[in-house]
Amino acid sequence: MFLSYLLVALSALLNQSAAIYERGSLYSSLRMMGTEAAVLKRSRRIVVFGPLLLVSTPQGCWRWYLFGLIARSGVEPRFLLQSLGMIVVAIVLGMGLVFASLAATGPVMERVSRKPVSAV
Question: Whole-model pTM?
């Protein structure tokens, strides 16, 4: 599970960096029209986290279901707490990793959006 979040984080880092450079004139134009940088960053977070939440929510529900089945099978409570902890830690660390990769592209977007727009 954590490995999938790591791949999503790397993908988000590369794709968002490429998208920033590709849409540099758009970001610059939006900034010149008065759009705040926070709005641009929020829109990038929505683009990345929307599909991620859409995919990871059913996966998390499936894990809760499996956790319930394991709990009913009479497994030792210590094992249940460890498995629940691993699920929660993987989700929190994975989401944090994706958020950190988006935060790493923030300075790139700031620099690109402050460039003057070319007429070409």
Answer: 0.73
